[in-house]
Structures are given as C-alpha cells and as structure tokens.
Amino acid sequence: MSAAWTNIATSAHSLLERLPLLARDFTTDWLPESARWLANSLITIATVVVAFASLFALLTIVERKVLARVQNRPGPNRVGIPFTKIKLFGLGQPLADGIKMLTKEDIVPRAADQVLHFLAPVALLAFSILTFAVIPFGRQLVPLELDAGVLYFFAAGAATELAVFMAGWASHNKYSLLAAMRALAQLISYELPLLLSIVPVVMLAGSLSTVGIVEKQAGWTWGFVPHWHVFTPWGAAGFAIFFVAALAESNRSPFDRPEAESELIAGHLTEYSGFKYALFFMAEYFGMCALCGMGVTLFLGGWQAPLPFLEIIPSYFWFAAKLLTLLFVFMWIRATLPRLRIDQLTRLAWKFLVPLALINLGVAVFWALTADWTGAIRAIRWIVAGALIVGPFVLIGRKLSSGIAPRTYRYAT
Amino acid sequence: MTAVLILIAVATLCTAAVAMALRNLIHSALLLIASWTGIAAFYLWAGAEFVAFAQVLIYVGAISMVVLFAVLLTRQSRADVAIAPGSLGRVVLALIAGGAVLGVLVGAVLSTKFANSSATTPTVTVKQIGQSLGGAHAAALLVIGVLLTVALLGAVVLATTDRAEKEDA
Fold first, then answer.
1. Nearest chain B residue to A345, by CA
2. How far is A272 from chain B (nearest CA, A)?
3. Which of A70, A260, B66, B132 is 20 to 30 Å from A306 by CA-CA measure?
4. A19 plus A123 within the same structural domain
C-alpha cells in the first residue's frame, strides 16, 4: 500500500517537475520538426519576459508596501477593482501606474541628443532582458544552456552601464551628466568585486555553466545541511561580497548615488518622462531580479530544495522562493540604510571589497586543496578557512574605520 | 551563414568608418563601441563563444568606460566635444602615422601563410581553453599580467604628478 502511494507521489512530483516543458511540447507538437525549435525558443522567450514583467508589476507594489510598513504607514491601499468598492489592499496600483505611464506626455528636451535620448532606455531594457537567458529557473528550465553561461551573464550586464551613460549624456542636463559620471565610476568600481567574488565559485565548481554550478550544489551533509556554496567559509564571504556589489550594480539604495533624489534630482532620469521613464524603472527591476537570480544560482543552490523531504515541491518553486527572499532583503536594506557619499562608496569598493575578494580567492584555493581531509581534521579545515577570511575582514575593517568614526562635530553636538 | 558574416562585417566596418568621420567625440566613442560589439558578433559567428563574451565584457563593459571617461574629463565644456584638426601639419603627420600602422598590419597579414582550414570546425570547450591558458601558455599570461600592472602603475604615477597639490578623496 505504502509502496503504491510512494509511486503515485513520485510520478505526480515528476509530472509537476516537467509540467512547463510538457506544456511547451504540447503547444508545439503539431509543428514540423524544423519549425518546432523556433517555436519552442519563442515560447521560452515570451514566458520569461511575461513572467518577469508581471513580477516587476508585483514588485513595484510590494516595494511600496514594504517601505510603508517599515516607516509605519499603510502604503498604497486605494486602487482595487474599478467602479466597485473592493480595494484588495491596493493591488490594482501597478495597473493604474502602467496606464498613467503610457498616457503621460513624452517630453524630449530641444537641446537633447534625440537619437541617443531615445536609444538609452531601449538599450538598457534590452541588455537587462538578455541576462535572463542563462539563469536556470528549474531542473530543466534554462532558456539557453551555454558552456560559458556565467561569462555571458556578466558580459550582457556590463553593457547596461553604457546605456546609463547614454541617458545621462544625451539629456543635455548638468544633473544628468553628473549622474552619468557617477554611474560610470560606481559601476566600474563594483564590477571588480562582483566578478572577483564569483571566481571561487567557478574555480571550485570547475564550470562556467550555470546549470553545472547548480548541479554541483546537490546533496546534503548528515541529511540536512545542503551542499550550497554559501555554507562554506569562502562561499559565505563570497556571497556577502557578491550581495553588496550586486546592490551597487543595480543602483539600489544605499548605493543609489547616480539617481540621488535629494541632490541630483533623479540623475539620469531627470529628462525622461512617460513611458521612457517606465522603461528605465522596468530595466532597474529586471537588473535587480537577474542579479538576485544569479546570486541564487551561484551561492544558494539554485533550484535545489533545502531539505531532502522538501524535494517533493517542484524545483522552480524553490528558485522563486529564494529569488523573492533576496528581493525582499534588497527592499529591507533600502528602507533601513542611508545613502553613502561618493567617496565612501568608492572606498568601500577599492579598499575593502576588492582585497577581501582576493583573499577569498586564496581561501577557496585552500578549501580545494584540502578537499580530501576527513574525520576530525575537517574541523581544522573549517577553522583555518574561517580564520583566513574573518581575520582580514576584521583587520581591514578596523584600519578603514580608524580616524573616521566616531565623528566629532565642531559646531554641533 | 556567409550572408550573416557579410552583414556583421559591413556593420563593423561601417560603424568604425562613421566613428572616424563624425566630429562629435561622444558619438564617435559610442560608434567605436558598436564596432567592438560587431567584432564580438563575428567571434560568436565563428563559434568562439568564450572569446566573444570576453570581448563584450572587456571592451564593451570596461574599455568603453575608460574611453568615455577620457572624453568627458578632457573636454572643458559640453560644446567642446566637437573636434577639428589643429593645423595642416598635424593632419599630415596623423595620416603618415596611420598609414604606417596600416602598412605594417597589411604587410603582416599578406606575409602570413594561412593553413587550409579543415572541413570540420574545431569544438573547444571553456575547460580546454582554461587548461591551455593555465598550462602551456601560463608564462605568456603571467607576462601580460605583469605588463598590464606596470602600465597601470605608470598611469597612476602620471596622474598623481600632474595634480599633486589637489588632494582628492
């Protein structure tokens, strides 16, 4: 009896697991062989774009709600179903915002560089969408399986900096140009720790393929500690560096220098209105989702379930859960931390994150060389690796903050 | 497949040519970046995935920033981005220098004997590239790394002696 039940459970699970692929094959089954490949790709692209566009709509309202709750106010709660009194906690807000953005006047300054002004939001969004291609959303759900997937991701992501610069320069506005310069400085600074933090992952997984890296993180120690990279000394440090750099790369608070409202009146977005502004907004959220997705893939086990018995839940659900958790932390940080000054921002990158990422590389090498240590000696492996990364962290942190804090005020208390 | 190659080649060469013809430095820089992207597209067409992505990452992602920074930091005002040759002598010198480089490059291409390409495209995985870079060509890689570091230090030295009294954060 129990064996039959297990059988049913397993087949139901595998059905759920393959459901997206089955649905796709079902739709394109009637096509000839040559056209099927194209149709399958188009369906995949459409699914990814639609899924993340709706996630973007959801995130705008969730972000406003989260920020509001942190600040002890209700947030948007008026828009529900039109012509009724049903308010649905304001869930209709993204739709209303979308209609507002679409119907707003699109103003282009006369002195602006017309072509670049138009091209910037389009390029930014295009490059942001490109990054989704290599993220494995589930066990077999990767839009494009590339041998050098990680490299592709960062190559597509690097081009977004150019679009921000184009927007700032083409606007013919002092604030926009300043913002463009800041964006360049910030993005160059944080590209380095971002890339350095993922090198250990690539080194220890022995693969640049996103699918391969996720598969390397399968399994559990003692049946309950997952083999995710974040649960190793170098992985934890790498994830922390990656996370900070990802915050900066996606222009999120506390690193939202380029669009600082209070001093640069929204920076490169100053001269954008209507739908172009919405495109920038969308691209920012897409970039954030893609970087979080990459973080989940590289450090948090991708679509792997956290515990063996939870594998009954389909893999894409786990990916979504981890992704949403990371996005929530992004919002949380935005609500909590004040914005950094530009010199603090670059100092953090060059004097703290880059050296730590390089040291982390050494820790990863140590970890790889001691992979065959077993038994009690494994505790030594953990202690040495942990000390190798925590020691420099404390030392560099102390050195950097000495003489700066606590701040003394001459004319104030 | 050849049609794609011709398309890529035309796009790459056209963007490079227009970049030289334009008077607006920022437009030239952006077109130059477009041209680099075209080269990456060519690598992709030739099946060299790794090189293509590396090209985009380094040229479109990093070097482009350096170029744009240089343009923005050296211009006095926004109207100053349009450039014109300083004098006739400079134009002539520029043409001679450019022609010399072109001559050397064309000479090198013409004097190289290309082996007849085999019928099958060689498939090289990223792992193989890594192993050959870390094994047989490790010394060359290290030498290039040292060279670039020295260049970087040189740039820092030049930049700091220029404006020693202006201490920046």
1. B169
2. 20
3. A70
4. no
